[in-house]
């Protein structure tokens, strides 16, 4: 009785109000580029986010949404390290299922992003929002309704067979980061083999090898983020 | 030859299934309905104590939510109902939770059954109206009945804690689902009571709606909100 053709005319888009499908905010301004970071526990997602913020915060307006498994640990790490002001970091609680909050039910994350955009709007708006998943398994990927692009972070100490094993994170992420390359000699990981296996799984999709303890070790990821932002800005000028 | 009577299928009955599905993406998965605090305090330890917890929540918070949802589905002014929900929710932590979940429900409802009534409530309460009110309005937009809305709200009041107990206690999932099955007769009773109250509220106003409360759930919700480490948002 309520859903007829007239309704479809009045509501042509069943959009979800700030879903990633819509590049504009309700006031018509371009919204921030949203980049998701996922990957197993301990691979260095939060450290990568922190390093990205430090590298980019002087030239870009950035905010971060964390999805912790238990409450605010990752958000508090970012606050303690003072990579961004507290008003630009929001923690989403995930009920023990971080992959649900980034893939199956993205409503809490969309609201956190909306609130950050509203809060920073008067200061000139946001260029980038990083959405960090809680540490999860190799199948955890972000919904396209939530982010524009996703980075999957693994590390050499988690086993150099992870790229060969594949899974949606390794295979489909827009950027695969293999972190902690400085540890490779100590844990017997073969970086060449990881690169070969990643290429076999991912085809032309890029892979970045990083060591965040090295000076400017996050640079390959920073360069990739800059390229994505340039493409996003050009597409929605 | 005698003719069989036409089976009477309520309007848009299957919308009930969509809205009550635990995978309906409106934020419920991150909330335990007070179960996390009850597990920590030792009040939920096994299937038996989970059943007692769920029964208590169903007849208090569940009944109240079901009345509000049925009234919204029946066409009572959602802003009046939102105030009535505040009056029935003394704990600030639970008000915040209800509005947060209401905002998430609103987003999903506007994507699934868009309509002017949902748009109007979203504009009037951009930070979120109480979840049962939004749920009732979503049921109305879907073309289902006030009784359906009451059933969904009543079921949500016990399905959330049951799912959370499986995660928190590693409870056998078959046992947790059997708890829900044993509560079915009471779920039907609570939904019927709530729907009847909503019918009266059309004439008498929101004071006719149930206002059952659970003081222990109110108190533990406040302390749970202050825990530094927890798995669930509420």
TrEMBL record, chain A:
GTP binds at residues 39-46. It is found in: Cytoplasm. GO terms for molecular function: GTP binding; GTPase activity; nickel cation binding. It holds the Pfam family cobW. Residues 35-207 form the CobW/HypB/UreG nucleotide-binding domain. GO terms for biological process: urea catabolic process. Gene3D superfamilies: P-loop containing nucleotide triphosphate hydrolases. Coiled coil: none annotated. Keywords: Chaperone, Cytoplasm, GTP-binding, Nickel insertion, Nucleotide-binding. CDD domains: UreG. GO terms for cellular component: cytoplasm. Signal peptide: none annotated. Transmembrane segments: none annotated. PANTHER family: UREASE ACCESSORY PROTEIN G. HAMAP family: UreG. Facilitates the functional incorporation of the urease nickel metallocenter. This process requires GTP hydrolysis, probably effectuated by UreG. This is Urease accessory protein UreG. The lineage of its organism: Bacteria, Bacillati, Actinomycetota, Actinomycetes, Kitasatosporales. The gene is ureG.
């Amino acid at each position: 009785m309520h859903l007829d053709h007239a309704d479809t005319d009045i509501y042509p888009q069943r959009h979800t109000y700030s879903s990633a499908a819509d590049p504009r905010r309700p006031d018509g301004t371009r919204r921030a580029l949203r980049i998701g970071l996922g990957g197993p526990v301990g691979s260095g997602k939060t450290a990568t986010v922190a390093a990205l913020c430090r590298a980019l915060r002087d030239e870009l307006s950035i905010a971060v949404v964390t999805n912790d498994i238990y409450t605010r640990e990752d958000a508090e790490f970012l606050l303690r390290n003072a990579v961004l002001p507290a008003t630009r970091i929001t923690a989403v609680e995930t009920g023990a299922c971080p992959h649900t909050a980034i893939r199956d039910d993205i409503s809490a994350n969309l609201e956190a992003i909306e609130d950050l955009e509203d809060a920073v709007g008067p200061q000139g708006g946001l260029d980038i929002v990083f959405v960090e998943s809680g540490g999860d398994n190799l199948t955890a990927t972000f919904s396209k309704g939530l982010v524009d692009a996703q980075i999957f972070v693994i590390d050499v100490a988690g086993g150099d067979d992870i790229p060969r094993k594949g899974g949606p994170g390794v295979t489909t992420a827009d950027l695969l980061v293999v972190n902690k390359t400085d540890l490779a000699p100590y844990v017997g990981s073969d970086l060449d083999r990881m690169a070969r296996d990643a290429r076999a799984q991912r085809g032309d999709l890029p892979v970045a090898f990083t060591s965040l303890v090295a000076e400017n070790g996050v640079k390959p990821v920073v360069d990739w983020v800059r390229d994505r932002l340039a493409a996003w800005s050009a597409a929605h000028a | 030859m005698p003719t069989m009577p036409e089976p009477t299928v309520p309007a848009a009955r299957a919308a009930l299934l969509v809205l009550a599905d635990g995978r309906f993406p409106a934020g419920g998965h991150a909330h335990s309905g007070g179960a996390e605090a009850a597990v920590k305090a030792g009040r939920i330890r096994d299937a038996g104590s989970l059943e007692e917890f769920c029964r208590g929540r169903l007849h208090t918070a569940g009944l109240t939510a079901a009345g509000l949802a049925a009234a919204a589905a029946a066409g009572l002014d959602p802003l009046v109902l939102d105030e009535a929900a505040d009056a029935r929710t003394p704990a600030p932590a639970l008000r915040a939770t209800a509005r947060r979940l209401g905002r998430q429900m609103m987003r999903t409802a506007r994507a699934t059954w868009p309509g002017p009534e949902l748009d109007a409530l979203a504009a009037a309460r951009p930070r979120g109206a109480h979840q049962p009110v939004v749920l009732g309005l979503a049921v109305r937009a879907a073309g289902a009945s006030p009784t359906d809305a009451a059933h969904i709200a009543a079921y949500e009041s016990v399905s959330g804690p049951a799912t959370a107990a499986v995660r928190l206690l590693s409870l056998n999932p078959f046992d947790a689902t059997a708890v829900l099955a044993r509560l079915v007769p009471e779920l039907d009773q609570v939904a019927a009571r709530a729907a009847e109250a909503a019918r009266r509220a059309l004439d008498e106003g929101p004071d006719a709606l149930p206002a059952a409360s659970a003081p222990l759930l109110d108190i533990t919700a406040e302390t749970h909100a202050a825990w530094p480490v927890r798995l669930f948002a509420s």
